[in-house]
Amino acid sequence: MPRNPTDPSEIWAQSLETLLDAAWARLVRGVRDKRAAARQVTLSTLGANGWPQARTVVLRGADKDAGQLEVHTDLRSAKVAELRADPRATLHVWDARVHLQIRAELRAEILTGAQVAARWDRVPDGSRMAYGSAPAPGQPIAQALEYTKEPNAQDFAVVQLQVLAFDLVHLGRNHRRARFEHADGWAGQWLAP
Length: 193
Ligand SMILES: Cc1cc2nc3c(=O)[nH]c(=O)nc-3n(C[C@H](O)[C@H](O)[C@H](O)COP(=O)(O)O)c2cc1C
Prior knowledge:
There is one protein chain. By secondary structure, this protein is α+β, with helices and mostly antiparallel strands. It is built from four helices and ten strands. The chain has a single domain, classed as Pnp Oxidase, Chain A. Strands 1-2-3-8-5-4 form a six-stranded antiparallel β-barrel. A hairpin with a 7-residue loop joins β9 and β10 (189-191). It is elongated, with a radius of gyration of 19 Å. The two termini are 16 Å apart. Bound molecules: flavin mononucleotide. Flavin mononucleotide binds next to β2, β3 and α2. Residues 40, 53, 55-58, 71-74, 77-79, 137-138 line the site of flavin mononucleotide (FMN).
């Protein structure tokens, strides 16, 4: 069956190379632009009891050359324990502006203490509140507001995420899907959407 001609404004989705570049560009934009779709992303992990877990996190770093993404969290949160037990994670973004779904398969490393001291120095005061609540995140409390927030550098954790693979779906006039793997040098492979 003949395909519709591709909208010229979506020319970047036509080649594997430019599609992958576009995904990285959207991730980098998420780090810099609070209103970008990739600012607040979904990070999923393998739950301790085997149940898949997913939560919203702010994307704090995206480095194409290093193939790395970064998020910040409280060291005592469930996601840290889950990633220490099994470092596999998936990040998901639906970027409606460019009609692009990004799924990234990742291997996580948890950095703490002296390793992240320089990053902690750059965290604004308001954001520091997210690290150091009492009791620890996820602990039961008798009343909804029975907790305090006292910034604590010891509770600050950087989750460094090495990208192992991307699954990209572009919903254009024609839909396109491709998988890219670190293991084959990011050559990419078109997939049926
Ligand atoms: C818009 C939004 C942004 C969030 N950003 C972060 C974040 O950057 N880091 C983080 O640890 N939790 C963030 N959270 C809270 C998480 O979604 C989650 O509730 C919390 O980290 C506990 O998750 P866990 O028990 O799976 O570890 C955010 C929540 C929302 C709604």
